[in-house]
Specification:
about 170 residues, alpha/beta, Double Stranded RNA Binding Domain, 2 domains, globular
Length: about 170
């Protein structure tokens, strides 16, 4: 990462989110708690300016007014991870896929564990909706922001997608 990143904080219903990126794109979103939480790196600069669009779109998402994001994203990961993260963006708002379904859609029906690991490494949660992936039985499985955050995001989307064919089972 040769570009110096900026960061800011966004208050949300799931807590204070860390947004990090540059003038061209969003690179990271971090939850306030959970196994994948992180703080700004020493070389990052606190600045609100690069995040006006991201903050506005996240606010609209949390208010139920936005179901898709239109932001430039930069992914830091392997080619396989980036492929999984791009496919996550195809999961419709208010719906869930299993890890197996995600693997099948990638043309890798026997790779659900590898897909799960890549899903768990997603650096831009919410916007790249890794929370929409659940276990094959419908059980909520691991999530970098914590299971309660995942449950909240799925319930939020189900409530706002009613009448649009949303399919959600929370176990």
């Amino acid at each position: 990462m040769g570009t110096r990143l900026a960061y800011c904080w966004l208050e949300s219903p799931v807590g204070r989110l860390l947004l990090a990126g540059d003038d061209a794109s969003l690179h990271y979103v971090s939850f306030p708690r959970g196994s994948r939480t992180f703080l700004p790196r020493d070389e990052w600069v606190l600045s609100e300016a690069p995040f006006d669009r991201a903050k506005a779109q996240l606010a609209a998402y949390f208010s139920g007014e936005r179901q898709e994001f239109d932001l430039e994203l930069t992914f830091h990961g392997t080619a396989f991870q980036r492929r999984v993260w791009r496919e996550l963006q195809a999961i419709p708002y208010g719906e869930t896929w299993s890890y197996g379904e995600l693997a099948r859609r990638l043309g890798l029906p026997n790779a659900s564990r590898a897909v799960g690991a890549a899903n768990g490494a997603n650096p831009i949660p919410i916007i790249v909706p890794c929370h929409r992936v659940i276990g094959s039985t419908g059980k909520l499985t691991g999530f970098g922001g914590g299971i309660e955050t995942k449950r909240f995001l799925l319930a939020h989307e189900a409530a706002n997608a009613q009448g649009q064919g949303a399919q959600l089972r929370l176990l």
